Amino acid sequence: MAVQFRNLLVIDDEPSMRHMLRLVLEQHHYRVSEAQNGAEAINLIYKEKFDVILSDIRMPDMDGLTFLEQPEVRALNSTIIMMSAYGSIDTALECMKRGAYDYISKPFKPDEVVLTLRKAEERQELRQENQQLKQALATQDSTFSIQDIVHSSQKMEQLLKLVQTAAKAESSILISGETGTGKELIAKALHSESGRTGQFLAINCSAITSGLLESELFGHKKGAFTGADREKQGLFSIASGGTLFLDEIADLPLELQPKLLRVLQEGEIRKVGATRAEKIDTRVVAAAGTDLQEAVDKGHFRRDLYYRLAVVDIHLPPLRERQEDIVVLAEHFLSQLCAREGRPLLQISAAGKKNLSDYHWPGNVRELENYLEKALIFSPRETLELPPLRIRQSVPGTFDPDEYSLKVASRRLEEEYIRKALDKTEGNRTQAAELLEISLRSLMYKLKDYGIE
């Protein structure tokens, strides 16, 4: 909801000015109180809370600048706007130094006052939203722990022990694994176990264009480029003291890779348009859903950056390789979904559990959660009916009885699926990338690699 100030205090020794402001502001639904000098205003402050204070500078007994210095005024959360007919730039700056939000030169048009109030309200709204976001992030980070990761398999037990050990180091970490295996969850576990007191922030490197990504990561100075009307803090600065999770790191543009390497080597960043670097203390955890080493071999990813990121390499196995986790995850998701939908807790039958365990879940944990959500939507209220799972057959012609290389087989399968997606979308590469659940940039690399026109 938009912020709107209601209670205003006007401080001015001229009755005509106070009267004019009262008439104007009451027309815009503000409740206005009046004081003829700073001393009288302080008495009113003890009695009532004001959202905003409009104060003249030159007044008898206590002028505006002296008013700003009073302990009672410094303790206020009110927005203070100063007014003067004898103003200068130096006067305005002095007001700002003493805590005023803005400055208006007399004589002014009534609309100028209203516009200044609207700007102040927008600023207050942004401050409130920022505070709410910080509180949400703090709550999220403080409540999540490695014990919240649902599992039953020995593979996951061993992996989480590795996470606990690696979390204590300051080194960068690379998490590899198929789409939907839960790489961001592991990144959060690394942060929660690290003891770092800063925030956990995440960004998908394939979801933002190259030009915007640099500003998002490193920030920019005011005027650095068209539209940069104010200075912006980058995610590396905001997450200083905490952890920054770089998902889909293989899609980081080549021109940004040296800048990330500098962060990892020197522990400093340079904002877009800045001439000086600033030190940060941000732990980097990156994730790749594709073979990053293969991207290095093809020249799509810097080798030196790869080794900097993969000081610790954690591979998250696909769900089909940890079958013991399938049922416990299914029951966990079902419990959450039933609670969310206000339905009684439904049980999965023995036959249903077997079917879930026998399916190979190419979309991994994400596909499992999606499948259960659909099942719950279309099930009667008191029972759970699991729709049939379609076992995906191998693509014809991809299996050679004399060929045992998994890399060769996976490349053949990948090429076939890319061609099928392009056929399905009639050559529309953007739509094909969405079908394949990869970024357009990744698809373009693969098209070139496989020689697909």
UniProtKB/TrEMBL annotation:
GO terms for molecular function: ATP binding; sequence-specific DNA binding. The keyword Ribonucleoprotein does not apply. Residues 149-377 form the Sigma-54 factor interaction domain. Residues 116-143 form a coiled coil. The modification 4-aspartylphosphate is found at D56. GO terms for biological process: phosphorelay signal transduction system; regulation of DNA-templated transcription. Residues 7-121 form the Response regulatory domain. It comes from the Bacteria. Keywords: ATP-binding, Coiled coil, DNA-binding, Nucleotide-binding, Phosphoprotein, Transcription, Transcription regulation, Two-component regulatory system. The keyword Zinc-finger does not apply. This is Two component, sigma54 specific, transcriptional regulator, Fis family. It comes from Desulfuromusa kysingii.
